[in-house]
Amino acid sequence: MVLVAAPTAVVLVFVAFPVFNALLFSLGFTGGINSTLAEIGQDIISTPSFAVFENLFHDSMYMRDLGATLIVTFASTVLTIGAACVISIILRLYGGYLGKLLSILAVVPLFVPVVIASWAILTFYDGTGFLRSVAASLGFSAPTWGFTLTAVTIGSVWTSLPFAVLLIAGAMQGIPDALLEAAHDAGAGNWQAIWHVLLPLAKIPLTIASTFTFIGVLGSFTVPYFTGPNSPTMLGVDLSRYFTAFNRPQQSTAQAFVVFAFASVAAGLYLWATMHSNEQTS
Question: Is residue 142 within 8 Å of residue 135, measured between CB atoms?
Answer without folding.
Answer: yes
